[in-house]
Amino acid sequence: MAPAKSSMKTIRWLISEVTVEPITFFNFLALAYYSVPMQVGIYRVICEEILPGVDCNRLSSNPEYEDKVQRATSIWAQVLIASYLLPALFSDTIMGAVGDMYGRQINILIGITGMMLSWYSTAVVLSYPGASLIIILAFNFVAGATGFLTIVAISAFAYLSDVEPDHENLTIRMVILSMINAVASVIGSLTAAVAIRSLSEAGVILISLILLAFAFFYTLLRIKQIPPTEMRRLVEQRNRKLKNVEPPGQQMELKKRHDEPTEAVVHAQNNGEKTTCLKQARLVMTTVKKLLLDVYRTYTKPRAGHKRMYVWIASLVYFLQVIVDMGLQQSVLSLYLLRRPFNWTPEEISVFRGISAAINAFGSVVGIVVLKKLLKCEDVTILIIALTSCIVDRIFTGFSTQNWMIYTSVTCGCLSTLLVPTMKSFTAKLVAHDEVGKIFTAFGLGSDLAHLLSAVLLNSIYTATVSFFPGSVFFFGASLSFIGLVLFCFVWFELKRDSSLTTRD
């Protein structure tokens, strides 16, 4: 009986440790179901609008018609992506500050609600012939104001840091969360391919809405709307109870802390103010202003050696990499595979997304084990390898004319997934411990801006070159990654020189 009780206790403990993992799992699963039907559906709607009476499933037989639809779809992709990213630039910053003050649950719920509104509008437009894409545009703008998928991901990672005080355990849980997201993308893309074969585009999107609903209600029931400072106190209290080291009178002290007003309320009371909505809004804006000022100071303060320059280089390369990844993955790659000579079906695109996600996840695991654990490579060396992998991937894709070449390019680029986590790790080592959060905030703001820029820049290049060399946009992406490669080769040589000088002294 004792072993059985111990096993049940362990299971209950494991279940209690699960927090935001199901939220991100359902979100990435839903995104996999939504992406391909949305892209292919909009492609079809635009084709039917500008080429009435033409069979949009056989455009490859008429290159002039196909290029016309490709250009129009690329332009619409710019507009639709910008419609939610532009308001998201502001909402993510404000909502992030609100979450730091009042808790993460409401941000996650608002972000999921915005996604459901936007995706539902897409399903409606794809269901009714003649429905205007402006409907999606309007709902995307509203969804962007809610923070969309970005605020859900940011709040989920932040909540995890609130409930896990141990830094080593937090790193492990962050890695596990990233792997869960990768598994969700693989499962979602492969199962979505089956659904696309038997359901309409709107029907597949409906499945994604159901998955988002699961995430919404799980958040409502499982995630607590507690200010992060209070959450950390409660976690400390629980950990002390589990270790049986809680000193006498500690429970009363913790209860007293629990009953204390939050930081926002204290701020208002100290100034003799009532915590009205207007006062709280002012407090939020003050917090945002302070956050941006702290980010500015973090990037401009003098640092030992060349550390400040390295921080700027890392941030620039991260910015360029987000432009390449998001611009190519969100719309350009699907358009590239829909046209001649590939002429892929929606099912083939969905299967490709699933297989490429699996290859990238495998590359991440192998890369970490081999490069970091066995070969003991430094962060800069891993970044150089990851950037090289990315460049080979883009060049190979740009020259591809057959299906096997597309899959080969993904395999060549599997180590590029090491870039973002290693970049954050490298940058975190350059600054003080209390500045890490500010650096990551800058990365988040830069990521939103890069998403917006990539939607305009890469789609514009694809629109201009689709008739004579559609692969040129991938060469442009490779050139941006090459800039990053040159910069980090410079960093590598500088670090080696500094190390040799230190050893000599």
Automatic annotation (TrEMBL):
Q: Name one GO cellular component term.
A: membrane
Asked if the Swiss-Prot or TrEMBL record annotates the protein with the keyword Transmembrane, the reply is yes
What is the top-level taxon of the source organism? Eukaryota
Ranges that cross the membrane: 12-34, 75-94, 106-128, 134-160, 172-196, 202-223, 309-329, 349-371, 380-399, 405-427, 439-462, 474-495
The UniProt keywords, alphabetically, are: Membrane, Transmembrane, Transmembrane helix
Q: Where in the cell is it found?
A: Membrane
Molecular function GO labels = transmembrane transporter activity
Q: How does it sit in the membrane?
A: Multi-pass membrane protein
Where does the Major facilitator superfamily (MFS) profile domain start and stop, copy by copy? 25-496
Q: Which PANTHER family does the UniProt record give? A: FI18259P1-RELATED, ZGC:174356
Under which name does UniProt file this protein?
Solute carrier family 46 member 3
Q: Which organism is it from?
A: Trichinella zimbabwensis
Query: Mind giving the lineage of the organism this protein is from?
Result: Eukaryota, Metazoa, Ecdysozoa, Nematoda, Enoplea
- The gene behind this protein is SLC46A3
